[in-house]
Amino acid sequence: MNWWKIIGGIFGGAVILAIGLLIGHFGIKKETEIKTEINSPEWVKDISKDVDEEFIKEFMKEVNNKNIEENLRILSKKPHMATTSADEELVKLILTQWNDPVIGLDSAKEERYDVYLSFPDAENPNNVKVLTPQGNANFTSQRAESNLTADQNDPDIVQPYVAFAPKGSAKGKLVYANEGKVSDFQELVAKSIDLRGTIAIVRYGGTGRVNKAINAAEFGVVGVVIYTDPKDINDGKADASETYPNSWYMPPSGVERGSFKENFGDQLTPYYPAKSFTYRINETQIKGLSPIPAQPIGFEDAKTLICELGGPAAPENWQGSLGCVYNLGPGFSQSSRFNNSDVQVNVYNNRTIKSSANVMGLIRGAVEPDRYVLYGNHRDSWVHGAIDPSSGTAVMLEITRVLGAMLKQGKWRPRRSIIFGSWGAEEFGLIGSTEFAEEYYSKLRDRTTAYINVDISVFASDTLRAQGTPPAQSVIFAASKQVNTPLHPSLTVYDNWKKHSNRTSIQHGIIPQLGTLGSGSDYAPFLHYLGITCMDLAYTYDRSKSKARIYPAYHTAFDTFDYAAKHIDPGFLSHQTVARTAGNVLLRLSDSLILPLGVKDYVETLEQYYNTAENNFRDKLQQNKISLEPLKNAINKYKTACDALEKTIKELNSTDEMPLKIRMINDQLMLLERAFINHFAFPDKLYYSHVIWASRTSSVVTFPGLADAYQLAVTTNQKDNWDQVHHQLTIVIQAIENAASTLEIAATI
Amino acid sequence: MNWWKIIGGIFGGAVILAIGLLIGHFGIKKETEIKTEINSPEWVKDISKDVDEEFIKEFMKEVNNKNIEENLRILSKKPHMATTSADEELVKLILTQWNDPVIGLDSAKEERYDVYLSFPDAENPNNVKVLTPQGNANFTSQRAESNLTADQNDPDIVQPYVAFAPKGSAKGKLVYANEGKVSDFQELVAKSIDLRGTIAIVRYGGTGRVNKAINAAEFGVVGVVIYTDPKDINDGKADASETYPNSWYMPPSGVERGSFKENFGDQLTPYYPAKSFTYRINETQIKGLSPIPAQPIGFEDAKTLICELGGPAAPENWQGSLGCVYNLGPGFSQSSRFNNSDVQVNVYNNRTIKSSANVMGLIRGAVEPDRYVLYGNHRDSWVHGAIDPSSGTAVMLEITRVLGAMLKQGKWRPRRSIIFGSWGAEEFGLIGSTEFAEEYYSKLRDRTTAYINVDISVFASDTLRAQGTPPAQSVIFAASKQVNTPLHPSLTVYDNWKKHSNRTSIQHGIIPQLGTLGSGSDYAPFLHYLGITCMDLAYTYDRSKSKARIYPAYHTAFDTFDYAAKHIDPGFLSHQTVARTAGNVLLRLSDSLILPLGVKDYVETLEQYYNTAENNFRDKLQQNKISLEPLKNAINKYKTACDALEKTIKELNSTDEMPLKIRMINDQLMLLERAFINHFAFPDKLYYSHVIWASRTSSVVTFPGLADAYQLAVTTNQKDNWDQVHHQLTIVIQAIENAASTLEIAATI
Q1: Which pTM was predicted?
Q2: Which of A138, A310, B129, B563 could bridge B344 with an S-S bond, Cβ 3.0-4.6 Å?
């Protein structure tokens, strides 16, 4: 054999071997390979997918200010008070968009409740009169707001009234009672003013609307007139030339409407959805309504009344900006043209049951359809409601448009389900959202990761204002760091917010101030009754520039598209900013592998509450043999559990982690807030079950049940009241122990 | 070139190619293969693992009757009433076994609560005396049970008493009041018997213990004597020769102890764990305790009293088996040696706070550590408590021994976590279990799949007796079909059970009768307060052979190991059967991929309740304009949701299914029962929050709130009582709507 043949043979063999190797390696499927494929189902990839930052960027880019402007124009074209035909038109409009094949959601529907509302009588307008001793009216309050832009001419504008104020006429000497707080009436009594049989005129602010009337009635007052003082709403400006349409300030004829009721939800069906089959309590059993007639007026009318009052001058801090010295009364001054006249409050409101709709929209979750992120706002207004609530709805519709389009194009589906709610009848006391929370109590409680509320989305264009429970802080921070402010493109919403409102956190250093949630909008039933982590987002004004209690056209016939476009957010860039921020938050909550809820941020609240309780209550508690030590221990336990969970999350290897471990952690984060719910804690407070955030009468900012029980006990110094302090302390400790237990390693006893 | 060279070359080439193919295929790792391995993590296999039937068989084989016998011998050696030193010894014993390195669990610990108990005074034994008009005692009840076996000689046996009966002496004419029901006292009054100032002697049965005293007090009775009639417990046999140790029947000196309290849990800390920091209500605020002294006696003593009574003869169905005609009194007959004598009840019980321990054992779940299966029994007895509760504890310890050994050998780890509880102070009103449920409210509510209670495991050796909520039925059936009866090896526990007690189910045909749960053992807080699917398993007697109210040595000094071994379960094969059945249930709940909870089985209960309500209430409801139609609709909705979920489960491809889909379904099954919980439903009933199973006064077996409200309304015919009927109907409808909603496709609105 020749060498070349040998070499050729070796070479040829090598080539053949190589071909064999190649075919063998790539051409023939291995059995183990086939088996591995069976073992590695499609879902393995989906299940460990985290939030897509590129998608969030794309979403934010897509959010369009012009669309929001257009939404707002349509939404606020007509006055759309709850259950009116214009409200029903908006139900259809939202349903149409959410069911749209190109930009709609997976599904949408309306859900109706028969709810207890209150309307004025169109035939017999409410009014406030000054009556001569002979019974002749020498003053009658204005029937409607002045027609300053074409908008106030709409025949569907509801006349000024406060809902649920009882029908009736009340007559008596007029008294100026400041804000109608208990302390205000006490001060009048201290000044030897006999309040029995009087009519009190009070300004908005300082306490809840209906409280003014409830307080007044307790002092023998028979009727209430309520108005908005230019000092509180207009930074003192009272002249027509300085107010809308010349500025954002409330015109002299503007009347703030509102509901005079203490409790939220449908008043006849507490704890149960107001369906046709539902038992309704008797109207007389409703608690927290005004026992006496009440009527709101504009400050122009208020000036006529207050500036004519006799009696001693009101204290300095009771004085307002009507351009005269406010006297207390009772009755008008001798030099007044109203001398010896009484004031009469005439209310012809009718209480009635009407069908109100929520519109619900759904995007089904791809991986965890049984976990919900809720996003909502009410739809009903008092008049045109451009800012309240349509600025929020305009934003919601733009968010759903962008997400709906992505969804329909197959570009995106969230990990978790997203539920959008357009709530009905919020202005009558958060009714739509409350009925929804009642109807789906079980599944909302078990499955909801968080609720995002965007009601008024833009009060003004200066800075973000966010409220929420502590776990919401981190996701709001994360989102607001990714959005730029409209006016300073190099400044993030986060940094701008921090500039306007900040605090020093032990854990995080200087950070923006996250506000706390009361019960002012539709988050209330989700927070207080269900124990869901909630937040409320908006753009607002620089408090160093304006002290206005709220944006000045609030609940008046001047809250129009024109007002919004000219004075609140020209160009709608703040609306866009809120849409981007809220949408970013929404996407992080729906798509993150690990829920972006910072449960450890509760530690600061708990410790702050603890320190306040210790500083304010310790001595008297010790005297009554009640120790705060177990509360401190519970908080420390909570802190330890947070640290351990944080460590577990940090050490996760998300691509290789058991999906049920991720779910376990997410359930801990989601259900944390639920541990603070105790339905037995406050038997006298309807719906309030959240031990940390329930309503509070005491001015000491600490655990509300403890603060109120303490206040009563120090007042009475009765043994059983001190027992209730101990009882409330036990409730707090047990709630925090349960919270800690929720975060601890799951398989522990 | 030669042909052979060519052929050789081709052949050689082919060999080389083949080698190449083989090396290429098997020898070199593909990149895609490596990638696939990354995509197919270890957990994919674990996560879809279903219950291992072979392992269940092995478990059942390992369960040993001799071990149970030995457990029982040790557990019942000493009287071990709650918080006594013998009870504390058992705490240590159980802890030692559960912490054992060879047969123990993952971890075990004791949890202590400071609970309100009641004990007699050793220095001043309680008694019942007959006093001559001169005040001399011519009869005093026996201080202790007769020493029939060595066991009754134990100095630690607690003297006969009923716990929580108040300290005091009461004296008066004796009256026989049958079972002490309200109707019994009414009948006495109807017979013109003046009950004021009398002492009532009543027999056990017919109503709860303390109710007899509460009812009596309402009729003016000042003291209660309670005894067990041989008719009720001994099938009429009263002679010593026919009773233990000669048979299983109660000896004449036997006294049934018990607690006289209406509500379960620690009486001073309702809704909160009885920790050192916990607020305690004032003793006077406790509801449901006896207002008058009460003392139990044996039927030998009862005979002395009852057979001497004067007055008219008691009605036929009030007559018992003491061997004389029962007269009603008041007072003894003129011919009696006790003529003109009063009866005096002397009670020296002390109420006191003591530390009681639960022993908790844990096996960590491999896949879903945050899902719990609870298994428990109480540890405390009244005397030796061989049957009550040690027969259950003996079984529990054998189950934990077998599972612990498998665990330590690395042969098994459950999918879900298993928590074992040895509860303290059950005899004083389910205290240990209730405090545990209170302390861990949040996480137990959110994570517990089911609670298995095995208290008295063997009442007798004839048949299984199972009680539970409907979802428990299917898993009990599945387990009982896999266990054979001890006496007929070819007969399954299921078939034998069906023979003894069955019903016709629309859905399943003839099936064994699953009993309903009241509040007789430690399942009560889990069921009524937390809404967890519960069951209680035991072996019991053939009711056609004995009418005994319960096994006759119940709560007496004769409930000993000797009694159990000779008269209840010689050979301990029934104990073994219960251990196998309960262990089988436990393993199915802990290891099944899909939770074996038959939520559809609730439909029969709901429909039966509905039909009963319709048949009994319809006419009067219609008259009061209350419609049952929405209730029917809600039940149909529930049914539809069950069918859809059942279909989804059937169509699952378990090896290839998204693990989060499995988890979603399991969460629906687990949380179904929680949807029936409404903490606002029954504000006057402590802990009772389960709308379907709450306690009921009315005899109509339907939704308890509805039944009781209806009963009141038809009695008073007051508008507000009919309103409450409508209110309770709303509560039921809403609970069923929530239940349906829990089972519906998760991503719906």
Answers
A1: 0.93
A2: B129
Residue among B26, B278, B734 whose CB faces A272 most closely: B734
Q: How many helices (H) and strands (E) does chain B have?
A: 23, 19
CB contact under 8 A, A417 and B674: no
Helix (H) / strand (E) containing B466: strand B463-468
Q: With H, G, I as helix, E, B as strand and everything else as coil, classify residue B197.
A: coil
CB contact under 8 A, B664 and A368: yes
Distance to chain A for B600, nearest Cα, Å: 18
Distance CA B64, CA B250 (A): 30
B648/B659 Cα distance (integer angstroms): 14
Do the Cβ atoms of A684 and B680 come closer than 8 Å? no
pLDDT tens digit sequence for A7-30: 555 565 566 666 655 665 555 544
- Which chain B residues are closer than 8 Å to A24 by Cβ? 20-26
> Is residue B110 packed enough to be buried (19+ CB in 10 Å), middle (13-18) or exposed (0-12)?
middle
Instruction: Please answer whether residues B575 and B65 qualify as being in contact, where contact means their C-beta atoms are separated by less than 8 angstroms.
Output: yes
What is the C-alpha separation between A548 and A234, in angstroms, rounded? 6
Give which of B72, B19, B145 is closest to B552, Cα–Cα.
B145
pLDDT in tens, B587-646: 999 999 999 999 999 999 999 999 999 999 999 999 999 999 999 999 999 999 999 999
- DSSP at B502: E
Q: Do A362 and B749 touch (CB under 8 A)?
A: yes
| Residue A706 with chain B: CB contacts under 8 Å | none
Task: List the alpha helices (DSSP H) in A487-593.
Answer: 493-500, 523-524, 561-563, 573-591
User: What ipTM was predicted for this assembly?
Assistant: 0.92
Instruction: Name the H helices within A280-415.
Output: 299-306, 392-408
User: Rounded distance, CA A568 to CA B524, Å?
Assistant: 59
**A33, pLDDT greater than 50:** no
CB-nearest partner of A24 from B25, B370, B447: B25
- Mutate which of A15, A17, A732 to test chain B, going by most B C-beta atoms within 10 A? A17
Where would I find the beta strands (DSSP E) of A106-165? 107-119, 127-131, 137-140, 162-163
Q: How confident is the model at residue A748 (pLDDT cuts 50, 70, 90)?
A: confident
Contact in structure between A613 and A577 (CB atoms under 8 Å): no
Instruction: With CB atoms and an 8 Å threshold, state whether A443 touches B16.
Output: no
CB contact under 8 A, B660 and A368: yes
Contact partners, residue B94, CB within 8 Å, separation at least 6: B108, B359, B361, B379, B393, B397, B422
Extract the tokens encoding B259: 């607690």
- A interface test, pick of B442, B633, B672 with most A CB neighbours within 10 Å: B442
Query: Whole-angstrom Cα distance, residue A502 to residue B450?
Result: 48
- The long-range contacts involving A484-492, CB below 8 angstroms and separated by at least 24 positions, are A484/A577, A485/A577, A486/A461, A486/A571, A486/A573, A486/A574, A486/A576, A486/A577, A487/A461, A487/A573
Contacts of B44 in chain A (CB under 8 A): 39-41, 44
For residue A246, CA distances in Å to A482, A572, A577, B23, B408 come to: 35, 19, 26, 87, 82
Do A397 and A610 meet the contact criterion of CB atoms below 8 Å apart?
no
CB–CB contact B30 A33 (8 Å): yes
From the candidates A38, A277, A447, A671, which should be mutated to test the interface with B, based on the most B CB atoms within 10 A? Answer: A277
Q: How many CB atoms lie within 10 A of CB B324?
A: 13
* Predicted confidence (pLDDT) per residue in A444-488, tens digit: 999 999 999 999 999 999 999 999 999 999 999 999 999 999 888
The span from the CA of A343 to the CA of A341, in Å, is 7
| Residue A489, preceding peptide bond in cis (omega within 30° of 0) | no
How much is the average pLDDT of A297-323? 98
Active site residues of A: 426
